[in-house]
Specification:
Strand content: 15-25%
CATH architecture: 3-Layer(aba) Sandwich
CATH topology: Rossmann fold
Structural class: alpha/beta
Distance between the termini: 32 Å
Helix content: 25-40%
Oligomer: single chain
Shape: globular
Radius of gyration: 15 Å
Number of helices: 5
Number of strands: 8
Amino acid sequence: MRGIEQVPALYDAGVALLEATGLGRWRRWLAAGAEGRVLDLGCGTGRNLPLLADGTRPVGLDPCLETLRAARRRSPGTPLVLGAAERLPFRSGAFDTVVSGLVFCSVSEPIRALGEVRRVLAPGGTLRMLEHVRATFSVHALLQDAFQPLWTRVTGGCYPNRDTEAAVLKARFRIDEGSRRANGILRRFVARP
C-alpha cells in the first residue's frame, strides 16, 4: 500500500522537521561509525548517504523506486539497488557495516530481514541501528497499539508499536550496551552477530 513513506517530498518534509528537533544528531551518529563496505538498508530518499565518511563504499537498497530516484539526486555516485530487506541481493559477507535508520518499523518480516543482515555482514561486521520502537510504559504502548492500524495505513507500512530491539536479540545479534541510547521511543545502538 502506498503511503507517506513512498512519497519522497512528503517523507523528506516530515523527516527534515524531526531532524531539526534532534533526530539529525542521531542520524549523524548512525552514519559516522560506518566503515568499509556499507549497506544503507532501506535507504529511502538517501538521507544517510551524504553523511557517510570519505573512504566508505556505500550501496543503498530500498523497495520503492520513487524513493531511490530521490536518493540518486541526493547521492549521485552511490550504487542503488531496488530490493527488499527480507531477500538481500548480495553475496554473503559482502558488507563491513549495515546501517538501518528508521527502517525495521516497515519491514514485513523483521526476523527474516535480520537473518539476511547477518548473512551479508562480513566477519566482525556491525549493524548500526536508529529506530523508533514500542514504548516501554504500558499506557504509551497501549496508545501505540490503538493508533497502529490507522498509522500503518497512512504511512504505507510503518508499525509504531514494533519491539525492534527484541527482534534484534531474537535474530541472534548482541547489542553493544555501551553504544545504546534511548530517548522516548527512539533507540540507537550497534549490534553484532
